[in-house]
Amino acid sequence: MIERYTRPEMGHLWSIQNEWQTILNVEIAACEAMAELGEIPAAAVENIKKNAKFDVARINEIEKVTDHDIIAFLTNLEENVGEDSKYIHKGLTSSDVKDTAYCIMMRDAAAIILDDLRAFRTVLRRRADEFRHTPCIGRTHGIHAEPMTFGLKMLLWSAEIERDIERLTRAQETVSVGKLSGAVGTYSNIDPRIEELTCKRLELTPVRLATQVIQRDRHAEFVTTLAIIAGTMEKIATEIRNLQRTDIREAEEFFKA
Taking the alpha carbons of 210, 195, 174, 221 in that order, is the dihedral positive or negative? Predict the structure, then answer.
């Protein structure tokens, strides 16, 4: 998004800094799960949690040598953690942490949008009641038809927003999954219980099946849902703009200096 139109909360969520931080959160949660099962020392986890720092510029610098972003990230962590860094990423593959992190970010983005949709629905319901007896012309193909009320128009939008909330709630659930099952999803180098415990810490559901990656139909459903919601917003915005035209002037936005 153009920075001018990017909301700070959403912009931060999808920043490179937060992406790496979320990946680090997954790595730490996995270490905690391994310690709980006695696979790595608890003291090592405390050291990792205290000293696992990263710098995006340093990661990029290391990646010029490694040609691998996760190896560069882990190398940067090693520089700060020391010997105990050998326990970070134990038995994992890159997509275990990257895909799980992306799911967290999509889940959290959906939470922001859902809050906005619910707030918008509240406004539309209030305005629908306010204009429940305000007559306006109904149109068919843009041509005058039967009279209706402006409140009904608002209520129609509210009903569509309700469906958008339902859609996004389902899509959020679809992407709220995690995967820590190794290179091809076979758990060859990692105990399935680590995936279960890690996901529990991250408030995710272990994905039912995965290969190298969490399957992208989940991402497609999420993005498609966002497209439908954007379509709703575009329809409402276009209608409001049209109603403000000089030759129609059925609506007018508040103007301030």
Answer: negative
User: Which pLDDT band holds residue 90 (cuts at 50, 70, 90)?
Assistant: very high
Q: Is the pLDDT confidence value at 96 over 90?
A: yes
d(CA 166, CA 174): 13
Phi, psi of 40 (to 5 degrees): -135, 160
- Please state the rounded mean pLDDT for residues 179-198: 96
Separation between Cα atoms, residue 26 and residue 201, nearest integer Å: 9
Q: 3-class DSSP state for residue 21?
A: helix
- Calculate the CA dihedral of residues 86, 87, 88, 91 and round it to 10 degrees: 100
Instruction: For residues 199 and 181, give the distance between their C-alpha atoms in angstroms, rounded to a whole number.
Output: 12
**Amino acid (1-letter code) at residue 40:** I
Name, in order, each residue with C-beta under 8 angstroms of 157's C-beta and a sequence gap of 6 or more: 124, 232, 236
